Amino acid sequence: RKSPNDLNAFWMPFTANRQFKKNPRMFVGAKDMHYTTSDGRQVLDGTAGLWCCNAGHCRPKITEAIQKQAAELDYAPAFQMGHPIAFELANRILDIAPDEMAHVFYTNSGSESVETALKLAIGYHRARGDGARTRLIGRERGYHGVNFGGISVGGIVTNRKTFGPLVPGVDHLPHTHLPEENRWSKGCPEHGAHLADDLERIIALHGAETIAAVIVEPVAGSTGVLLPPKGYLQKLRDITKKHGILLIFDEVITGFGRTGAAFAAEKYGVVPDMITTAKGLTNGVIPMGAVLTTAEVHDAFMNGPEHMIELFHGYTYSGNPIAAAAGIATIETYREEGLFERAAELAPYWEDALHSLKGVRNVIDIRNEGLIGAVELEPIAGEPTKRAFSAFLKAYEKGILIRTTGDIIAMSPPLIISKEQIDQLLGTLKEVLEEVE
Ligand code: PMP
């Protein structure tokens, strides 16, 4: 048996694993806005873990709900049997979702929510006798998790190359980031709504009668906080509706208050047919995801041919009682503390603090919405990602946790962050950037 210090665990993305093993960084505790490191330091969480701990860490209400549920009903089969907690959570989610969302399909992660939504889209058309509609459309630089459907519709080209062949019949819209025109725009950029018109081109190429769904993140998070140009999402909605194609918003990051509204669908006033969620649903504490659907999508299955129900899919842990209890306590925490409203109120302060980094060396763009933000750095020629990664390491030494993707620094603090902590986060980042080569 090897000692734990041999670091033989292999759960991280491969590249992250390589970097980590050279320079391991361990968290051993967390409370509210801070992590405690294995060497006893406090680190301000500028990323809500991985965009998930929206109410901060180790919140007693959530911890207690988990403990209580684990002692009362630890598990109930997800098929044929039910338990009231899963239904209660579904109602709590729908209470804060756009009115058109009428049903909840449980999963255990963002990736599973994406697979589920893609399958629901294809099944929806088939249940209505429209079985030729199987094509899927994603977007370049979209991120939809790590499973085959998600990487197929996803816009990370290296993933598509490394793990192909993938799900057939997929096209990608162009990404919405127009660096030159849109740099420094506060909130959503004015330019780029025309990029949605590419959807008409793809539809014309294959015929609408072959296309099941379009999936996009309202704000692409993991690939660098790319905001939707004004009018872009509405255009996608108009075009999909016109052609009978379902629109899926992947709100795994944007859901549960990140943009200053419960869901980005509400923030941008555009209602999709399905919303995929995870992360903030249980405050990142227990793996759980959910796909929200309209009554129309749900009813196609429930009222469709019998065999559709037989073919249906679900997970052993779907809606499991402990995760559901955590979800209820999380949504209650968001409500009781008014955290979505708080995110909206803090957004202008956050925007000013972020944009105070304009002019700092190597900073070439800043983007923000709600309590999400990105600072893009000029890459070092021939060494992409190096500059941002050095900033990440230095920031960690100085007591703040940021996230990097390429040469973009992304931040999405817990919604409980104070103005002083915003100052600390961005002030420290400024210091770091002034020091990084
Ligand atoms: N979709 C989006 C938009 C995401 O940001 C993520 C995770 N960053 C996923 C899906 C995948 O979620 P998970 O890691 O929980 O599988």
TrEMBL record:
The keyword Transferase applies. InterPro entries: Aminotrans_3 (IPR005814), Aminotrans_3_PPA_site (IPR049704), PyrdxlP-dep_Trfase (IPR015424), PyrdxlP-dep_Trfase_major (IPR015421), PyrdxlP-dep_Trfase_small (IPR015422). It holds the Pfam family Aminotran_3. SUPFAM superfamilies: PLP-dependent transferases. Keywords: Aminotransferase, Pyridoxal phosphate, Transferase. Its cofactor is pyridoxal 5'-phosphate. Belongs to the class-III pyridoxal-phosphate-dependent aminotransferase family. This is Aspartate aminotransferase family protein. It comes from Thioclava nitratireducens. The lineage of its organism: Bacteria, Pseudomonadati, Pseudomonadota, Alphaproteobacteria, Rhodobacterales.
